[in-house]
Write a structure and sequence with these properties.
Layout lengths: L2 E2 L15 H10 L2 H7 L2 H16 L10 H10 L4 H12 L4 H7 L3 H20 L6 E7 L4 E2 L5 E2 L5 E4 L2 H5 L5 E7 L3 E2 L11 E4 L3 E10 L4 E10 L6 H9 L3 H13 L7
Parallel strand pairs: 1-3, 6-10
Antiparallel strand pairs: 2-6, 4-9, 5-8, 7-8, 9-10
Keywords: Disulfide bond, Glycosyltransferase, NAD, NADP, Nucleotidyltransferase, Signal, Transferase
Family: Belongs to the Arg-specific ADP-ribosyltransferase family.
GO molecular function, one term: nucleotidyltransferase activity
């Protein structure tokens, strides 16, 4: 049965704006990485595989990037079972703050993948690369629909390719042509370099320019019109309300005075 795209309001869509350092500290102090790998047998194996792949990659870390940013990108692009588990969890974890807190076991991965896309995108824009990319995404065995003129979000991390032919290898039942302005080209951080991958974050909003049902499958054309996040620094906010907020504030002031970007973990 067809799936109708909408604004994916149950998605956990945090952009972590203005709280990157605090989030890193919170994840470190709460030992979230250890908790997440303990809860998922695929997680550590894939993380290590991504670490090894990065050692062979010719690309170095960008300024503001930690190892965990690069590993999260590499691990995600491996298209493993962890990739689909993360996406399924992301698309439903925004049902409520409580659900995110107690049931979302990808807090570490979500943070580092989200901010890695942002860092990569900022760097690409500063280098005078395209502000927006036209990309393609093929989906197998699912007929996705959308109303022309409506606004939609993927509500999950979405892999796309510069190459239409590459996208169609993943499926042709639904084929997206997307103009993304928040997605980042993976370049040396992708496990499958031939895919020419661009990764779109969950919070980007698209206008549905056209929707066609053809004999080959459904064809959608989406154009970026901004971003929307229901959640903002959720983990830090919950922690602030638990403590007095003093320590978080003190560390934020300290890091801004020192002008450092803390790379923990």
């Amino acid at each position: 049965s067809p799936i109708l795209m909408d604004m994916a309001l149950q998605s956990f869509d945090d952009q972590y704006l203005g709280c990157r350092e605090e989030m890193m500290e919170e994840l470190e102090q709460g030992d979230y990485f250890q908790k997440e790998i303990a809860a998922n047998k695929d997680y550590l194996r894939l993380w290590k595989k991504a670490q090894e792949a990065l050692l062979k990659s010719p690309v170095g870390l960008l300024r503001e990037m930690c190892d965990s940013h690069a590993i999260a990108l590499m691990a995600y692009t491996m298209n493993s079972s962890l990739h689909s588990q993360l996406n399924w969890a992301t698309s439903t974890a925004g049902i409520s703050p409580e659900h995110y807190r107690h049931n979302f076991s990808f807090k570490y991965f979500h943070f580092y993948l989200t901010t890695a896309i942002q860092i990569l995108k900022e760097w690409q824009s500063s280098m005078g690369k395209h502000k927006c990319y036209e990309v393609h995404r093929g989906v197998k065995d699912l007929y996705i629909e959308a109303k022309e003129g409506s606004r939609v979000r993927f509500g999950r991390f979405t892999s796309t390719s510069h190459l239409r032919s590459e996208a169609q290898k993943f499926g042709n039942e639904t084929l997206f042509t997307v103009t993304t302005c928040l997605g980042a080209a993976m370049q040396g951080f992708s496990y499958h370099t031939s895919e020419k991958e661009v990764l779109i974050p969950p919070y980007e909003i698209f206008l549905v320019k056209s929707f066609l049902q053809t004999q080959q499958g459904n064809r959608l054309h989406l154009r970026s019109v901004g971003n929307y996040s229901k959640y903002q620094c959720q983990l830090v906010e919950a922690s602030r309300s638990k403590n007095s907020g003093y320590t978080a504030l003190a560390s934020a002031i300290l890091s801004s005075v020192l002008g450092v970007s803390l790379c923990l973990a």
